[in-house]
# Entry
Amino acid sequence: MKTCSKCKKLLSFSSFHKNAAMCDGLDHYCRLCRNAFKRRFYIKHRKEIRANYSKYRKSSAGLEAAKRDRTKHPLQIVSRRRIRDALSRGEIIKPLHCQNCQEFAYVESHHYKGYAAEYALDVVWLCRKCHVLAEKLKVS
# Structure
């Protein structure tokens, strides 16, 4: 058990992110407080963060990373583009909740049948946690 420095609650160790810089190897803020802090930080510094990201993407390292991603995962890139285009045309509708756990959260498209062209629009909408779990189950 550990006490969060922000909310002062006594929580289990699993409620804290790992942090190698700390003596006990865990962050001093619980996950909820750390995520709230990161959200507020992003909102406050959005312009600088976006400018830095844009600057990186235009740099030689960013262009090289994008090229590497395109050559390593061409089917995924095409499938994501088709999903984005179908959303903008209104052909498919992105729900506000995860289709697995029903939690209202930001959802991502999961290509459960694969990235082949005939399955590009066959997706389920999952929250990040369920999406990571689905990918792990698909691999093993």
The chain has two domains: 2-38, 73-139. The mean pLDDT is 93. Residues 48 and 67 are 25 Å apart (CA to CA).
